[in-house]
C-alpha cells in the first residue's frame, strides 16, 4: 500500500479507523475528525456539515489508529426522502506550505433496518381540524370571547386598509404611492396590489393562529406528571399521564398518541436580491401508538377516568430513528404528541421533550 488511505471497521458501537500514510509523512502533524454531512435532495440545496469528533497527534508510524465510541457522538448513516446524512472520516496532514494533504472515507453505520411505513405521516401528525366556530366561540370563557372579537376586528381593519393602499398604489404614478412601490429592489416592475395582498395574507395567518389559541380554551388539557423511563418495554397508564376538564359536554371524542421522524433541511430559490433560503420540515415514518374513542364525556369532569388503558412505546422504538441534529435546520428530528380530536371544537395537542427517550432504545436488538 503506497498511497495515503483510510480504512475502518465497526464492532458493536466502536469505530476503529486506520490511517495509512507514506513514510515521508512520519513526524508530521495529523488531525483526524468525523463529520456529519447532511445532503439535501434539491437542485439548489443548502447542505450542512458538523464535526462530531476530532483528535490531533504527531505521526510516528505509517499506520495510525483512531478509536471512536459512536454511542457518545451519536452519528449514523441515513438515506431519506428529502435528505441523506453521511458520516465522513477525514484526515488532514500538515505537510505543505500552501496546501495540506487531505484524505477521507465515508463511514457506513446504519441503525439496523427500520421498516418503511405506508401511513400518511403528515396527516397523522397534523390531522385536519374541523370545528364549529359558533359553538366553539360560545364554549370559551368570557375573556377569551372578548379577545377573539378584538383580534378579528383588528385583523379586518389592517387587511382592509392595507388592501385599499395596495389598490391606490397600483393605480397611481410611482411618485404618488403611499407604501408599495411599482418596482422591487432589483429595479424590475412589481405589483403594489400583489404586495399588499401578500402582506394581508401573512397578517391573517398570524391572527388565525392567535384565534385558534383562544378557541382551545373551551377546556383544559395537560400532562399530569412526567414520564420516568426505567426500561425499554415499560408501560404507562394513560389516565395517570394526561388530565383535563371541559366547559361543555364532549361527544365522540378521540384520543390518539402519535409519533414520527421529521426530515429537516434547506434550499435556495430566486437570485440576486430576491435570493432566499427556504426551510422545510417533512414528517416521515409516522406511527400510531394508540387510538381510543369515547362516546360522551360530561362537562366539568376529569377526562382521565375515560382513558383507562396502557401505553407502550415499543412500536415507536422499532419504527423510528433517534434524533440526529446537525444544525438548527438540518437533520432528523423526533416528535411525539397526544391528540384530543373533536368534530365541533378545536383539537387539543400535548407534546413532550424528545430527550425523554434514551437514544439507545431506538437501536435494533
Helix content: 10-25%
In N-to-C order, the SSE pattern is EEEEEEHEEEHHHHEEHEEEEHEEE
Oligomeric nature of the chains: single chain
Q: Which secondary-structure class do the elements indicate?
A: alpha+beta
Beta strand count? 18
As a whole number of angstroms, the C-alpha radius of gyration is: 28 Å
Please give the largest β-sheet: 6 strands, antiparallel
Anisotropy-based shape: flat
Helix tally equals 7
The first-to-last residue Cα distance is: 38 Å
State which percent range the strand residues make up. Answer: 35-45%
Give unreliable regions as ranges.
Answer: none
Mean pLDDT: 91
What's the structural blueprint in terms of helices and strands?
Layout: E1 5-11, E2 14-20, E3 29-40, E4 45-46, E5 48-58, E6 63-69, H1 70-73, E7 78-79, E8 83-94, E9 101-107, H2 121-125, H3 133-139, H4 142-171, H5 192-215, E10 219-223, E11 235-237, H6 238-241, E12 242-246, E13 250-269, E14 276-297, E15 310-312, H7 314-319, E16 324-327, E17 330-341, E18 348-351
Antiparallel strand pairs: 1-2, 2-6, 3-5, 3-8, 4-13, 7-8, 8-9, 10-12, 11-15, 13-14, 13-17, 16-17, 17-18
Give an overview of the whole structure.
This protein is of the alpha+beta class. The chain has seven helices and 18 strands. The strands form five sheets. Strands 4, 13, 14, 16, 17 and 18 form a six-stranded antiparallel beta sheet that branches. Strands 3, 5, 7, 8 and 9 form a five-stranded antiparallel beta sheet that branches. A three-stranded antiparallel beta sheet has the order 1-2-6. A hairpin with a 6-residue loop joins strand 17 and strand 18. Helix 4 (142-171) runs antiparallel to helix 5 (192-215). The longest helix has 30 residues, at 142-171.
Amino acid at each position: 500500500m503506497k498511497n495515503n488511505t483510510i480504512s475502518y471497521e465497526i464492532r458493536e458501537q466502536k469505530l476503529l479507523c486506520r490511517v495509512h500514510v507514506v513514510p515521508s509523512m512520519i513526524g508530521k502533524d495529523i488531525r483526524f475528525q468525523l463529520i456529519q454531512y447532511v445532503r439535501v435532495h434539491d437542485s439548489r440545496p443548502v447542505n450542512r456539515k458538523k464535526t462530531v469528533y476530532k483528535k490531533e497527534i504527531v505521526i510516528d508510524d505509517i499506520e495510525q489508529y483512531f478509536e471512536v465510541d459512536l454511542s457518545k457522538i451519536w452519528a449514523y448513516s441515513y438515506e431519506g426522502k428529502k435528505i441523506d446524512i453521511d458520516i465522513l472520516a477525514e484526515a488532514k496532514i500538515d505537510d505543505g506550505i500552501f496546501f495540506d494533504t487531505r484524505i477521507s472515507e465515508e463511514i457506513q453505520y446504519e441503525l439496523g433496518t427500520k421498516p418503511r411505513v405506508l401511513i400518511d405521516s403528515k396527516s397523522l401528525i397534523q390531522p385536519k381540524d374541523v370545528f364549529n366556530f359558533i359553538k366553539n366561540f360560545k364554549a370559551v370563557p368570557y375573556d377569551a370571547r372578548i379577545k377573539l372579537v378584538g383580534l378579528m376586528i383588528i385583523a379586518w381593519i389592517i387587511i382592509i386598509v392595507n388592501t385599499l393602499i395596495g389598490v391606490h398604489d397600483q393605480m397611481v404614478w410611482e411618485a404618488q404611492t403611499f407604501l408599495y412601490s411599482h418596482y422591487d429592489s432589483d429595479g424590475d416592475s412589481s405589483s403594489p396590489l400583489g404586495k399588499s395582498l401578500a402582506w394581508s395574507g401573512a397578517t391573517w395567518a398570524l391572527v388565525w393562529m392567535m384565534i385558534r389559541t383562544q378557541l382551545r380554551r373551551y377546556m383544559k388539557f395537560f400532562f399530569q406528571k412526567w414520564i420516568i423511563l426505567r426500561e425499554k418495554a415499560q408501560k404507562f397508564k394513560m389516565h395517570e399521564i394526561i388530565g383535563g376538564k371541559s366547559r361543555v359536554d364532549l361527544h365522540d371524542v378521540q384520543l390518539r398518541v402519535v409519533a414520527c421522524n421529521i426530515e429537516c433541511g434547506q434550499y435556495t430559490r430566486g437570485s440576486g436580491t430576491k435570493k432566499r433560503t427556504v426551510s422545510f420540515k417533512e414528517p416521515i415514518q409516522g406511527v400510531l401508538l394508540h387510538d381510543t374513542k369515547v362516546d360522551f364525556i360530561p362537562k366539568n369532569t376529569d377526562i382521565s377516568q375515560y382513558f383507562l388503558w396502557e401505553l407502550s412505546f415499543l412500536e415507536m422504538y422499532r419504527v423510528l430513528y433517534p434524533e440526529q441534529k446537525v444544525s438548527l435546520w438540518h437533520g432528523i428530528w423526533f416528535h411525539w404528541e397526544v391528540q384530543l380530536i373533536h368534530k365541533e371544537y378545536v383539537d387539543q395537542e400535548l407534546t413532550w421533550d424528545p430527550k425523554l427517550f434514551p437514544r439507545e432504545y431506538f437501536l435494533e436488538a
